[in-house]
C-alpha cells in the first residue's frame, strides 16, 4: 500500500488529500500539522474550513484511509510520498520584505523530513513557491546523515476556494515538474499513478521543475491581471457612461479573450493573488528585470486603487462624510462560498470607512466576529515605505467600538444610512429589499461592489444605487 503524508492541513492540504483518499482507496493518506486545534477540528464534525462538498468527502474516508494527526514525524517517516503544503506568506521583515515569499515554514519542514526519514522518498512541493525553490530544498535534503536519496517534484495546486472539491474532482490540468534524470522520471511516474486513478492522461502535464514552479506564479498573475484589467475598465465606464457588464460581454465573445473571469468587483482578494504577484515582482527584480517587475506591480496597484475608489465613491455620495453614519457591510469573505478572509478587499474598504468615522454593522454568513476584529486591526504593506509595515493603530485611526458584527442582513441594515455589498453571496440576491428599505434612514444608499443586485428594482423601491462599473444613473 502506497503511503502518502501531507505536511500542512490548510485550505489546500486538507481538501486535496481528502480527494486523493476518496479516489485512491488503496492509498493511505495522513494529513499532519503542528496546529493542534486545526487537526482536532479535522477530526470532528466541525471541519476547520468551509468548502461546499468537503464534509461529505471527509466523512467517507476519515478513519479508513484518511487520517489527520499532529504526529508529524511518525507519518513523514512512514510515507513513500511526502507532500508539503505549508503556508508561504509574504515576508514582513528583512530582505525582500513586502514582496518575497517567506519560506521559513517550508525550510523547517524540509529539515524535519531530512532528519526523520529512514528510507528514500518523493517530496512534493504543493505549496506555491518561488521558481528555483526545489534547488534549495534538494540541498537541505541531501545533507541527511543516513545517505538517503530524495526526489523533489513540483505539483502546484490550482484549486479555487469555494469550488475546491469540484476543481479537485475535475481539474483543468494536473501539473507535475521533476528532474530529467531516470530517478526524476520515476518519481514523476509514481505521482502520475496516483492522479491517474481519476484524472485522464491528457490532463496530466509533465514539465521540468522550474517550468512547473513558475507556471503556478504565472497562472495567478494572469488571473489577477484579468481582474485588474476589467476593474481598470470599470473606472472608465463610470466616467464615460459605458456599462462594464456590457463591455465584458462584448469583449468576452471574442474567442481569443473568452467570457470567463471578466466580472468587475471591488477588487480581488484571497491569500494567493497579491502574494504571488508580489513574489513575481521580487523574482523579476532579483533577476535584473525591473521593467517586467513594474508591469506586474501595476496589477496590485490597480487592485488597491479599485478598493480606494469604492470607498471614495461611498463617502462622496453620502454628502462627503460618513461620520457617525451607520453603514451595513454585507459580506466580508474574499469571495462567496468560503469563510476565508485573507486579503479580502472588505478589510481595506472597512478600514477606509472607519477612518472616515463610519459606524459599521457587518454580516457575513461564514465569517466570525473574531476573524473580522483581527483582520481590521492587522498591518498592511505600504508601497511608499517598503521597509516599514504601517500598523493600523485602532486608537488613533478608529475605535473598535465603531464595528459591530451581527447575525443576519436584516439586523445589519436596520437603521443604516447605507449598504455596501462586498461579497457575492447568493443570499444577498434574494433579500427582502422592501423591508430593508423601510427600516433604513432616508435617503437610503446601496453600493454594490459585486454586481449582485438588480439596480433598477432597487431604484423603484427608493434606494439611491451605485453599482461598480455602471454610470451613476444606470
Ligand atoms: P494554510 O495557512 O491554510 O495552511 C498551511 C498549514 O501548514 C497551516 O495549518 C500550518 O499550521 C501548517 N504548517 C506550517 N508549518 C508547518 C510545519 N513545519 N509542520 C506541519 N505543519 C505546518 O495555507 P493554504 O491556504 O492551505 O496554502 C498552502 C499553500 O498552498 C500556500 O503556499 C498557498 O500559496 C498555496 N495555495 C493556496 C491556495 C488557496 O486557495 N488557499 C490555492 C493554491 C495554492
TrEMBL record:
Residues 328-455 form the UDP-glucose/GDP-mannose dehydrogenase C-terminal domain. One of its GO terms (cellular component) is nucleus. Pathway: Nucleotide-sugar biosynthesis; UDP-alpha-D-glucuronate biosynthesis; UDP-alpha-D-glucuronate from UDP-alpha-D-glucose: step 1/1. It holds the Pfam family UDPG_MGDP_dh. Transmembrane segments: none annotated. It is an enzyme of class 1 (oxidoreductase). GO terms for molecular function: NAD binding; UDP-glucose 6-dehydrogenase activity. Its EC number is 1.1.1.22. Keywords: NAD, Oxidoreductase. The keyword Glycosyltransferase does not apply. The active site is at 272 (nucleophile). Belongs to the UDP-glucose/GDP-mannose dehydrogenase family. This is UDP-glucose 6-dehydrogenase. It comes from Prunus avium (Cherry). The gene is LOC110763193.
Amino acid at each position: 500500500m502506497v503511503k502518502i503524508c501531507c505536511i500542512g492541513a490548510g485550505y489546500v492540504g486538507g481538501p486535496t488529500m481528502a480527494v486523493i483518499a476518496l479516489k485512491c482507496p488503496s492509498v493511505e493518506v495522513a494529513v499532519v500539522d503542528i496546529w493542534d486545534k486545526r487537526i482536532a477540528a479535522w477530526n470532528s464534525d466541525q471541519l476547520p474550513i468551509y468548502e461546499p462538498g468537503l464534509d461529505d468527502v471527509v466523512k467517507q474516508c476519515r478513519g479508513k484511509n484518511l487520517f489527520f494527526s499532529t504526529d508529524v514525524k511518525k507519518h513523514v517517516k512512514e510515507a513513500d510520498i511526502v507532500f508539503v503544503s505549508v503556508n508561504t506568506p509574504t515576508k514582513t521583515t528583512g530582505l525582500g520584505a513586502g514582496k518575497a515569499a517567506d519560506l521559513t515554514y517550508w525550510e523547517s519542514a524540509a529539515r524535519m523530513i531530512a532528519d526523520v526519514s529512514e528510507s528514500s522518498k518523493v517530496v512534493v512541493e504543493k505549496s506555491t513557491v518561488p521558481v528555483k525553490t526545489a534547488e534549495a530544498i534538494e540541498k537541505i535534503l541531501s545533507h541527511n546523515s543516513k545517505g538517503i536519496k530524495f526526489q523533489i517534484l513540483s505539483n502546484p495546486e490550482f484549486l479555487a476556494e469555494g469550488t475546491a472539491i469540484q476543481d479537485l474532482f475535475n481539474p483543468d490540468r494536473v501539473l507535475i515538474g521533476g528532474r530529467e534524470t531516470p530517478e526524476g522520471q520515476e518519481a514523476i511516474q509514481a505521482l502520475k499513478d496516483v492522479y491517474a486513478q481519476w484524472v485522464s492522461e491528457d490532463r496530466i502535464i509533465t514539465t521540468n521543475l522550474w517550468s512547473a514552479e513558475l507556471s503556478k506564479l504565472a497562472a495567478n498573475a494572469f488571473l489577477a491581471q484579468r481582474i485588474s484589467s476589467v476593474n481598470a475598465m470599470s473606472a472608465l465606464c463610470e466616467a464615460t457612461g459605458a456599462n462594464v457588464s456590457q463591455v465584458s460581454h462584448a469583449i468576452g465573445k471574442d474567442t481569443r479573450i473568452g467570457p470567463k473571469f471578466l466580472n468587475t468587483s471591488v477588487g480581488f482578494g484571497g491569500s494567493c493573488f497579491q502574494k504571488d504577484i508580489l513574489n513575481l515582482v521580487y523574482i523579476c527584480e532579483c533577476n535584473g528585470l525591473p521593467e517586467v517587475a513594474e508591469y506586474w506591480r501595476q496589477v496590485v496597484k490597480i487592485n488597491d486603487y479599485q478598493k480606494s475608489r469604492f470607498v471614495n465613491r461611498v463617502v462622496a455620495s453620502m454628502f462627503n462624510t460618513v461620520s457617525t453614519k451607520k453603514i451595513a457591510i454585507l459580506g466580508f469573505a474574499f469571495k462567496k462560498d468560503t469563510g476565508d478572509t485573507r486579503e479580502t478587499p472588505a478589510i481595506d474598504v472597512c478600514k477606509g470607512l472607519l477612518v472616515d468615522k463610519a459606524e459599521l454593522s457587518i454580516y457575513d454568513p461564514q465569517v466570525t466576529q473574531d476573524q473580522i476584529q483581527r483582520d481590521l486591526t492587522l498591518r498592511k504593506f505600504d508601497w511608499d515605505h517598503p521597509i516599514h509595515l504601517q500598523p493600523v493603530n485602532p486608537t488613533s485611526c478608529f475605535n473598535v467600538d465603531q464595528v459591530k458584527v451581527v447575525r443576519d442582513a436584516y439586523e445589519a441594515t436596520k437603521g443604516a444610512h447605507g449598504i455596501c455589498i462586498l461579497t457575492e453571496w447568493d443570499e444577498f440576491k434574494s433579500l427582502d429589499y422592501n423591508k430593508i428599505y423601510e427600516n433604513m434612514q432616508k435617503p437610503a444608499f446601496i453600493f454594490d461592489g459585486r454586481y449582485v443586485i438588480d439596480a433598477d428594482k432597487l431604484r423603484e423601491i427608493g434606494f439611491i444605487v451605485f453599482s461598480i462599473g455602471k454610470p451613476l444613473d444606470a
